[in-house]
Amino acid sequence: MKINLYNSLSRKIEEFEPLKNDLVRIYSCGPTVYNYSHIGNMRAFLFADLLQRTMRTTGKYNVRWVMNITDIDDKTIRDSSKGSQSWLPQMGEQTDLPLDNLKKFTKFYEQAFLEDIAKLGIEQNHFYSMPHATDFIPQMQELIRKIYNNGYAYISENSVYFNVSRWAENGEYGKLKKIDFDNFKKGARIDSDQYEKEDANDFALWKAKKEGEPYWEFDLFGQMLPGRPGWHLECSTMEYELLGLPFDIHTGGVDLKFPHHEDEIAQSKAGYGFDPNRFWCHNEFLEVEGEKMSKSLGNFFTLRDLIAKNIDPIDIRYLMFSVHYRTKFNFTNDGIIAARKARLKVQEYIYELFNASENPIINEIPPEDDLLNRFFAELSNDLHTPKALANLFDFINNYPPQNLSASLKSTLIDEFKQINAIFNTWQVNKKPDEVIEIPDEIIKLAEERLLAKKQKNFTKSDELRQAISNLGYLVIDTKTGFEIKVKKND
RNA sequence: GGUGUCGUAGCCAAGUGGUUAGGCAACGGUCUGCAAAACCGUGAACGCCGGUUCGAGUCCGGCCGACACCUCCA
User: Fold this and answer.
1) Which of these, A198, A183, A85, A70, lies nearest to A131 by C-alpha position?
2) Structural domain boundaries, residue A38
3) pLDDT digits (tens, 9 = 90+) for A133-163
4) Which bases of strand B have any atom within 7 Å of the beta carbon of a protein residue?
5) Residue A156 located in a structural domain
6) Do A255 and A124 reside in the same domain of the chain?
7) Which of A's residues 447-486 have CB atoms within 7 A of nucleic strand B?
8) A262 shares its domain with A326
9) Which end of chain A has the smaller Cβ count within 10 Å, N or C?
10) What confidence tens digit (pLDDT) does each residue in A307-362 have?
């Protein structure tokens, strides 16, 4: 099925067609590993995962997905430096070598990141590569040489800057976002880092070495410039090295449109001579209880915070997909509860499909009601997951599993497997037998209750049920006796 | 100040000018000694004021409100 995608460049939904055969090359701006990822970051990664899975399953394309790990920047340097408050014992011992400290520090948070995305249902084997910025230093230097040679870079105080105003003369700057340079916010910081630029709009390609910071040697046509790469440069370089230019799709959060992605375009074009990619896809931001997530408001959550509150990461995945990626997402406690219930409703439906059929009433489903078609049609409509889910629920409500013939159920199981290849929020198999250990004490109480119930001593019966409940179990009456379940926190 | 997004029922969230989006919650019913679960059913909405149109949640204008970006934040 053809996929239609919103392209930030044209500000329109366009039909997607791979540039090279049936291969879709996707680059996603990944994490800067200086801390645990928060749920806002998670939205961006889940969006990228949704996109690449849709390309594989709905579009039937081959996918080459790259997500970078930024393991060198101001924050990683600051927090890994000797004596930093952010250094944790689990990272090991700090040494006198800044680069060594940086590696230990970023390795720690990279590991945490990989664990987090795994919990969110993002599969490691879907990545073609997760490159580290620090593994591409020579290639980045090569790109700087190209840009410099082409006249769009200059050296100042041993740093190298991109000359934006020179580049902007060709009308190639401001493709993603219109920026009115004469009307910058009053009082905005003109120069947030402490390097010397000719113009406030210019950005660093290479930052001069500072005392106590990690650095690499750099020979720029005879000028020795020890230092480290600028942020935008790493993406441009790794895209070129791993995917080739131009590739198909670049993803990231809306906040990255400017300056990060705008600068990426400028660098790639000024250095390699190509626009980096054809589609730019940006996910909207996430808010918490209607407010911007921030540490000062106390509504800043990492995935780990939420897991500690007994929230299932798969419910977060489902919740994120219940909202379209280009609208602001309001993360709420009620929302996560609703998402869980909705998800489990579908799960129960799937389990029911594996039950042996009796007295089927429905033997066929009209083509216009076909589940997979209706689901995929919405995914191909700019990844419209909320509508896809609405269609799914509509289907479930219209076709209860006990009414379906065995062959229909088997077809549906197949369709759910494909749906789940994208959503990855369900178990498409027979309901596993719950193996739960019920303490003898509880069983004894339940038997006592059953006896009281049979004797029609309902006061005692209800008291015993309450007592069992207080111990964390639910007793449920069945035709033959009772069933005991572990009480859930939600 | 510049650029842009958005205001839809108790909550979340779709809506491409024209017949019920969907989910959660709520309410009623079936079942049960009572429950739980499940199933069936029900109601309720388009920020405000104008305009265009046979017809506006949808298009246009104004107002009010929320939010984002504006130099290293997903």
Assistant:
1) A70
2) 4-148+168-187+235-283
3) 999 999 999 999 999 999 999 999 899 999 9
4) 1-6, 10-15, 21-25, 32-36, 38-40, 66-74
5) no
6) yes
7) 453, 458, 461-462, 465, 474, 476-477
8) no
9) C
10) 998 899 999 999 999 999 999 888 888 889 999 999 999 999 999 999 876 677 87
